[in-house]
Amino acid sequence: MNRLRALLADDEDGSILPLILGYVLLAIAVLFVAVCATDLYIAQKRLDSLADAAALAGADGFTLEVDGESVRAELTDAGVREQAAAVVAAISQGAELTSAGTPDGVSARVTVAASWHPPLVSAFVPAGVHLEATATSRTALR
Fold first, then answer.
1. What is the pLDDT of residue 111?
2. Measured between alpha carbons, how far is 18 from 128 in angstroms, rounded to an integer?
3. How is residue 31 annotated by DSSP?
4. pTM confidence score
């Protein structure tokens, strides 16, 4: 019986090392994916903020229309695009203005796009993702 126990004890020497190595590799892979997912989330939020700022500026691209005794603010596609392009050029870090205009003469709708690339190279994360954000803002003068 002691001989069998000694034989089985000899077979298990060093068997924990592959398990530890496997868990370390798994932990590194999960860490890489978590870092990349966080960076992607932050990039999308930055793009959302840029679209919001550009739409807000675009809503200020109105012209005043005088109709008898009333004055109203009228947005034009050219005015919205001009204001939004100025904000995107001043703030953007690799983003571009995709579209800017007014669907109803009162609201400014702006779309910006950018390409995201992961900060860490990993086989589990795509090499690049196309991001897009759209924001709408209404003019205060109506």
1. 97
2. 33
3. H
4. 0.78
